[in-house]
Amino acid sequence: MKQKNNFQRLATVVLVLTFAFSSFTSGQTVRPKKKAATNAKPKLVVLIVIDQFRYDFLERFEDLFGVGGFKRLINNGAFFTNANYDYVPTYTAPGHAAIATGSVPAQNGIVGNTWFDRDLGKVRVMVSDLKAKNVTMTGVQTQVGAPSPRALIGTTLGDQMRLATNQQAKVIAISQKDRGAVLPGGQHPNGVFWYQSSDGTYISSDYYFQTLPAWVQTFNTKNRPDKYFGKKWEHLLPDAAYARTQKDYTPLQKTALGDKFPYTLTGGEEKPGTKFYNLFELTPFATEHLAALAKAAITAEALGADDFTDFLSVSFSAPDLIGHAYGPDSAEVLDTYVRLDQVVADLLNFIDAKVGLTNTVIALTGDHGVSPVPEYLAKLGYDAARVPTQALIEAVNKALNERYNKNEKWVQSFVNDQLYLDQKLLAAVKADAEEVEKIAGDAALKTPGVVNYFTRSQILEGDLPNTALARRVTNGFNRARSGDVWVIIKPFSFFTEGSIATTHGSPYNYDTHVPVIFFGKGIQKGRFSMECSPSDIAPTLASLLRIELPSNRYGRVLPLADK
Description:
It contains 20 helices and 21 strands. By secondary structure, the chain is an alpha/beta fold.
């Protein structure tokens, strides 16, 4: 009987221990699953770049935005309010390259929209590839010089996503501008497409493929800008909302559209043609059209539909074209951003329905800011002006001819506010490079509006002052592609560029300061005033995805994990 009781006690202990061990091991298997679900990678990363998106636009127009667009991203995401580009020139191509690679022109080689090619002796478009041809609805074209990323040095976020998944991640980049699509797309994307203003279609180049994908051809056939022909661009909001904009336009603040609302979209044609398709880009309806292409890409490419995180870059170019034409203080720019807010809201809703915003990470920023129209500021009593480029070049040539007793053209080109000097001429007269650069710089400094300069020799030797301006010049300087003397112009002034009302490119706050917003899965909500840069976007997203950072990144990983 005693032996039986002992056996029963032993059996009870064994049962208790078995149950405890079972509970313990069960807990061990449940916790990792819960942790894995929490740390699961997003299915889709969407980069939204707004061309000419000055930071203060978000604050100035905040009361005019709806709740589903910019406000949705700001209120439910990580909003970095003190993001500045840390280089010059602040143009579209360098901006998109910095965002995508996490680097600066000194490293990625994208020193401007254009640069002076010393080997060929002419100015070239940065993304123009002498080996590539356009691919349109009719196939590969004959003329070379189509866009490609061959000028880009290093990898992008999209490249790293592809490398981390044995090319299983899909990377698609679209824009109205070729450079707005090519550079975010990186070296080996699945597709890159941009707007062709001659016929209103989206095209690509044979760097990527020989024939446009079927879904792009379908889009070009069924969703043409033609539906906007004859449409009126008029105030979206009551007239009172536009009281904060400038009232009088300067002569340059006019396009083929005109200089007064409402604008009728015909281009002076009786039916859609090249003039209309060109004019279409100068309207906010072009952003609607590009967003429609983004939706088509998400659907046709099944972005976010499998276990490999995909990447979509959408760069809205119309705000830049409108801003150049009318200026940041115009009613046209205000109306453009209010309409863009609605486009962003609609795109977010589409992504939510198709992929789920809980499975998506959105990064939104601008590629540069913009200067106010000089004549507008001058009327208000500010020191602002246009500086003739030719006068600067003539002053430099004169100074060097006087020094070397010659009658030559020493300046080969003036691009990105940089003097490119004739190196063969310098060698022929056995001139000292440092001396020539200093003479040229001093001559430039006498030109009204010029306040400083930096020489190639200074930059290469690191003989620069410890200032933010000098750092931005150094970060923008590429030994193989930059000029010999970098000219710095005073704030609110710029060198004359055709008949545009205003431009950008300077190292000043109105050109460098843009919004940076992260929204979505794993992102901590909040408004952050820490100093940062759009060059931080790619490293931050790479860290979030737990993949290798882009190869020559300059930016840092921002603290945005949702704890």
